[in-house]
Protein: Galactosyl transferase GMA12/MNN10 family protein
Organism: Actinidia rufa
Amino acid sequence: MGKPTVQSKSVKVPQKSATLCRRSHSGSHNLLFLWFYTDPWPDLTRTQKPISASDGITGDDCNTPPSSASNLLLDPPNSTFYDDPTLSYSIEEPMQDWDEKRREWLNHQPSFSAGGDDRVLVLTGSQPSPCKNPIGDHLLLRLFKNKVDYCRIHGYDIFYSNSFLHPKMRSYWAKLPLIRAAMVVHPEAEWIWWVDSDAVFTDMEFKLPLRRYKAHNMVVHGWPHLIYEKRSWVGVNAGVFLIRNCQWSMDFMNVWASMGPQSPNFAKWGRIQKSTFPDKMFPASDDQSALVYLLLKEREKWADKIYVEGEYYFQGLRRRYAEKLSGSYAALREPYLKKAGYGKGSWRRPFVTHFTGCQPCNGDHNPLYTGDSCWVGMERTLNFADNQVLRRYGYMRPNLLNSSHVSLLPFDFPAEEEDDDDVETGKISLSVV
C-alpha cells in the first residue's frame, strides 16, 4: 500500500452530552500531521505549538485503560444501528447521522466510556497474495510485529487487513474502504490510526499527544508551505494519519474516495491532479495527491478540522522497568531532553520511520534507492526498534545487521551508549512523501 513514486531523504468516548465530531468548517488552522526525525526541506518555519505535557504525552493521563476494563460480555437487548438491515459497511454508501448512531450505541455500553477520548484502533495491511520479493513476507511479518509491540505497550487495538474490501480500490487506495468499515465495526474507538505496512515505530515509548488534537478530526504529517505555496503533491504524507470516528470523517472520506479508481471520473482526476501539482510526474490519481488537492481547493470546508503535524522527537533513559510502564518513564526523561531540539539536526530518535518507495513485498523499489539500501535500512531500523522491546526482557541485538544474535544484558547496561551509535538508523533510510 505504498506510493507510485517517491522522494527520499537519507533520512470519553466523549461524555454522553459531548459532541462526537468537531464540525466547524470555517477556520484558519493550516491543515494536517505525522512523525519524523529529520525534515526533507531545510527552510521549515515551525508554526505549531510546542509539544508539552498538557498535550497528553506525559503524566498519568497518557495511559489508556486497557480494553479488558470494558464489559465485553454485555450485549443489551436495545435496538441499535446494527439492527438496521439497510446499514452498509461499503465506502460507496454514504453514512447518515453517524454521530447519533454511535452515541446511542455507546449509551448502551457504559463500560466503554472510561478513557474513550484516548481509545485508538490501529489499522495496517498488505496485499492478499504472497510477496514476489523473496524476503518480502518475512519483512512484512517483522513490520507487523513492530506495530503489535507498540500497540501492546500502549493498550491500542490493532487490525491487519490482507483483503481488498473494494475490488477496484487497491494499493494505496485500499486503506479508505478499510477505515470506513472499521469505524462502523468499532464505534468504541475515538480515533482510527492508519499506518502503512512499510512504516516502523522507532520510539516505542512515545505516546500520541491526543489532547493536542481535541479540536481536530484528522491529523497528518505535512508542510503547509509545500501545500499552499509550492503546490506540491508531497506536501503531506498520506501513509500515516489519524482520523476521528465521526460524521465529519465519513463525509470527508466520501469526497476523498470520489477521486479513486472506482469512480467514473478517475482518469479525469488524474489529469486534474497532474495539472495542479508541478512536481507530480505520473498521470494516475492517487490518494495523497487527492488529499492535497482537497486542502488546496476546498480549504474553507475542510482545513480547520485537519491538523498538519511536524513535531515528535524523543530519546532514551536508562533503568530497568516493566514494559507496561514505558509511558511513565518516557515522561520522566523529557525534562532532560529540552536541549535536544526539534527538526533537522535534532538528536532525538524518530517516532516513526517510513520506508516510502522501498516496496518490501514486490521488491520493485524506487530507482532512487541504490543496491540493497532499502533492505539494509529496514533491518537496521527494525532491530533498533526491537531492541527497545528486548531490553525489557533483559536482552538486545548488539549488531543491528544481525537479527539472529541476541545478548543477555548486564544490570547496569547504559542504554544511551547504544542509542548514540544507532540513532543513525533513523537517518539512513528515512523517506518522506
